[in-house]
Design brief:
Elements (H helix, E strand, L loop, with lengths): L2 H7 L2 H18 L5 H25 L1 H4 L19 H21 L2 H22 L6 H5 L1 H12 L7 H24 L1 H7 L4 H5 L1 H19 L1 H4 L5 H23 L3 H29 L2
């Protein structure tokens, strides 16, 4: 395969979000900023995320070729034989990520990175994606482990703030992905993937998204309520939550493909505002 295809296998946009999540968690815990620490953390998180992404491409190559969104992926365009180099690449990336995490940081970062890759590659892709509507609920824990990994790079012991932020990410993922699943409902139905809109339809899924987002917004207030973060974070959480709930409300009253996509984009805006609130609040608190 050409180099560009190997790069596509890494799903660097998803990896970038995973790395950003870990970096924000690191910044929320670090007493002083270290560019070297940040760069190393970014590298190991990209390695871990890329390993599970490559495995996902390999495992899902049969259904990818039957969905318009994924039909042009590298492995979907090729015969199913002689793909062992792809699996070796996935294994090498994971070993490198876990090994470097242990060498430069500590065992807890390595463990959280491994579990993040495991939940996306095995729990989501292999065990649940084709079998249960819980696929994205449990598989989405990969983002929560990224929060824990970033915090553990500063303090290996489990601390309250990263646990609370991991809870927010846990609730964020279903609202994020079910919105995309509404947009792609017919494609998932065609390949027999039991995403929630395929099983319940878009209107009921929109109600599930709204209820889940209420839980997420409630969870996002806990860091302030428990005095882990301050007023700037609270304002960011309220702004982000209010905007996303408005998107959810619009989807609830018009559960169309277009509104599903709009809500999907809104979920990323939510995370951006929340992350900015965390960084600014913790930065001001150290001045």
């Amino acid at each position: 395969m050409p180099l560009t295809d190997y790069i596509e296998l890494l799903k660097l946009r998803i990896g970038g979000m995973i790395a950003l999540t870990a970096v924000v968690s690191y910044l929320s815990m670090a007493e002083r900023f270290s560019l070297g620490h940040l760069l190393l953390l970014t590298v190991v998180m990209l390695l871990g995320s890329s390993s599970s992404a490559v495995f996902n491409h390999w495992y899902d190559r049969d259904i990818d070729r039957n969905m318009d969104r994924t039909a042009r992926r590298p492995l979907a365009r090729r015969p199913l034989d002689n793909l062992s180099p792809v699996l070796w690449l996935a294994a090498a990336l994971l070993i490198a990520g876990v090994g470097l995490s242990y060498w430069f940081f500590n065992a807890m970062v390595a463990l959280h990175l491994f579990f993040g890759a495991f939940f996306y590659g095995i729990v989501y892709t292999v065990w649940l994606k084709r079998r249960s509507w819980l696929n994205i609920v449990l598989g989405g824990l990969a983002g929560s482990f990224a929060v824990l990994a970033g915090a553990a790079s500063v303090r290996p012991e489990l601390c309250l703030l990263p646990l609370l932020l991991a809870l927010v990410l846990f609730f964020w993922t279903p609202s994020h992905f079910w919105s995309l699943a509404i947009h792609l409902q017919e494609e998932y139905r065609k390949v027999g993937i039991p995403m929630l809109p395929v099983l319940l339809g878009a209107p009921k899924t929109a109600r599930c998204i709204f209820g889940n987002t209420l839980l997420m917004v409630g969870a996002s207030l806990l860091p302030w309520w428990l005095q882990q973060l301050g007023t700037i974070y609270l304002l960011g959480a309220l702004l982000a939550g209010g905007l996303f709930l408005w998107d959810n409300w619009q989807l609830l009253h018009a559960p169309t493909r277009e509104r599903g996509w709009h809500n999907f984009i809104g979920s990323m805006r939510y995370l951006g505002i929340l992350f900015a609130g965390i960084v600014i609040d913790t930065g001001v608190g150290r001045l």
